[in-house]
Design goal:
Helices cover about 35% and strands about 15% of the residues. The longest helix is centred in the C-terminal third of the chain and has 23 residues. The chain has a 7-stranded mixed β-sheet with strand order 3-2-1-4-7-6-5, with helices on both faces. It contains 6 helices and 7 strands. Helix 2 packs across helix 4 and helix 3 crosses helix 5. It is globular and about 55 Å long. The protein has about 220 residues and is α+β, with helices and mostly antiparallel strands.
Length: about 220
């Protein structure tokens, strides 16, 4: 079977979506950039399957130029469009994690960006975490909204939906998704006490410069 190692890695991290409560049951999806038969594309979790039942052959390969899956015997995640469009628009993206994590989903229901109440906001790539405007799941409109919210970012919220994060590999993308969920949890606690103090643009610029070497330290 082609890309067996990548398929198994997707299954490993799909199970982690459940075990870490980052995304329960069938919710969320995961993909990895890859090649198959000299076609550039990505491997993505299938639609509607419980992660605990996944087998390597269930993982679906789609070309970056495909507008739908030609082989209808293997149905990709309903969110394949924004996975494809992230890979098309972000050359640095090699893995994507989309999760309906509890706190990120709760914060996303307000449809607003998360301001820099904490310097770890910088992990998403900027001085706030954007929230993509709402659109029906699986639609081209949602994909466009996500790409807009990811401008100069490597993670964003999705209004009334959840979050999406990408990285150089699945470990990095998954860890970033966990960081976003933790930040959202902290933000919900902070809001219970009132409006939190917001770090200045100048301070966040310093933090963003430091964050470039965060994983190397």
């Amino acid at each position: 079977m082609k890309n067996l190692d990548q398929r198994n890695q997707i299954i490993e991290y799909s199970l982690k979506l459940n075990s870490t409560n980052l995304s329960p049951l069938r919710s969320g999806n995961i993909s990895l950039r890859g090649m198959e038969n000299d076609i550039e594309g990505y491997l993505i979790t299938p639609s509607g399957k419980k992660y605990e039942t996944l087998k390597p052959e269930d993982i679906v390969f789609m070309g970056l130029n495909e507008d739908e899956k030609n082989d209808q015997t293997k149905k990709p995640s309903s969110e394949w469009r924004f996975h494809r469009d992230i890979y098309r628009n972000k050359k640095e993206a090699h893995a994507i994690v989309h999760a309906h994590s509890p706190h990120a989903t709760a914060v996303s229901s307000h449809g607003k960006p998360i301001p820099p109440f904490h310097y770890m906001i910088a992990l998403a790539g900027g001085d706030d975490i954007k929230c993509a405007e709402y659109a029906t799941f699986g639609t081209e409109e949602l994909s466009k909204n996500v790409i807009k919210a990811l401008e100069n970012r490597n993670a964003c919220l999705m209004s009334n939906h959840g979050q999406v994060a990408f990285g150089n590999n699945l470990e990095d993308a998954f860890e970033l998704a966990q960081e976003i969920e933790n930040i959202c949890h902290q933000y919900t606690i902070a809001l219970k006490l009132g409006q939190p103090k917001i770090l200045s643009f100048e301070e966040m610029k310093k933090v963003l410069d430091k964050a470039k070497n965060y994983k190397k330290g």
